[in-house]
Amino acid sequence: MHSIEQLQNIINKAIAETKYTAKPAELYEPISYLMKLGGKRMRPVLVLVSTELFGGDVLKALDAAVGIELFHNFTLMHDDIMDKAPLRRGNPTVHVKWNESAAILSGDVMFVEAYKLMIRVDDSILRKVLDIFSDTASGVCQGQQADMNFEKRDQVSIEEYIEMIRLKTAVLLAGSMQIGALIGGAEKDQADLLYEFGENLGLAFQLQDDILDVYGDPEKFGKQVGGDILADKKTFLLIKARELSKGESASELDKWLNKPDALPDNKVTAITSIYDSLGVRKLAEAEMENYVEKALNALDKISVENSRKELLRGFAEQLLIREH
Description:
- The protein is an all-alpha fold and 324 residues long.
- The chain folds into 2 domains: 1-186, Orthogonal Bundle (Farnesyl Diphosphate Synthase); 190-324, Farnesyl Diphosphate Synthase (Orthogonal Bundle).
- The chain is 76% helix and 1% strand.
- The chain contains 16 helices and 2 strands.
- It has helices spanning 4-17, 25-35, 42-53, 58-83, 94-97, 100-118, 126-150, 158-183, 188-215, 218-221, 227-230, 236-244, 247-257, 264-278, 280-301, 306-320, and strands at 87-88, 91-92.
- Strands 1-2 form a two-stranded antiparallel sheet.
- Helix 3 (42-53) crosses helix 8, helix 7 (126-150) runs antiparallel to helix 8 (158-183) and helix 12 (236-244) packs across helix 15 (280-301).
- It is globular and about 60 Å long.
C-alpha cells in the first residue's frame, strides 16, 4: 500500500495534469488558480486509501478522487464569497483576484467538472457512486445553510450543532471513503462501515478544531486563536457554556457576547476564562474522544487484514493529534 505522502503526490500530479476548456479564460482560469493553491488533499487521499484498503488499484480511483477535490474547492470558492474572505492559503481569494460574478460562475463549472470526472467510474458501480456523491453534495450545502442560520439565532442546541458539522464537514470525508471503497470492490456493508468511520472521524476533527481555536498554539494550529470567540461563532464550547452558565457567569458571558466594541484580546481572555470555570474544554474533549472511539470501532469491524487498516488508523491519529 502507498503512504499518505505518496498518495498526495499522485493526487497533485493528476490535478496539475487536468486540462480545462481554454475559453472563455475568465471562466476556467480561476479554477486552475484555486486548485494550484495546494492543501493537504485529505479528501481525495481518503478516496485512494479506501480503494487500496480493499485491494483496488488507486489509478482506477484517480478520476473520482480529483472529482472530490474539485467539489471541495468549489465549496471553498463559494464559502469565501459568503464570508467575504480576502485570502485563501495566503493568496487572494478568487472573488478578490477576479470578481464575485466570476467566482460564482467558475464555482458552478467546478461542480459540473466534478460530476464529469465522477461518471468515469466503472458502469457496475456508477449509480451507487453518483447517489453517494449527490447526497454528499446536498448535505454539505445543507450544513452550510444551517451554519448561516445559526448566526441569526440566540440559542442553538448541541444536537443541532452536531448535525450541522456532520453535514458541513463529516459527510464529505465519509462519502469520499465510501466511494473509494466501492471502486476498490468492497461489498455494500463494508463500504457502509467505512462511511461510518469517516463520518465519526469528521465529527471528531471539527470538535478538535473548536478546541484548538481557543486553546491552540497559533504557530502550530495555523489559525488565529480566538477567532471563533471574536466572531461569536456558535461552537460546541460556546453552546455548552451557555447551557451550563448560571447567575453571574451567564450575565458575564452575555455581556461579552453583546459587546461589539470590546477589545479583541480582552474579549478572548474573558470568554476563555468563563470556559475554564465551566470546564467546557474537558467536555468538548470527551465528546471528541467519543467520536474517535466510534470511528475506530467501525474500522475494527471491516473484514480486511488488520495490517491493511494501519494506514487509516495512523491517519486518524495524525489528523487528531495536532499541536496545542
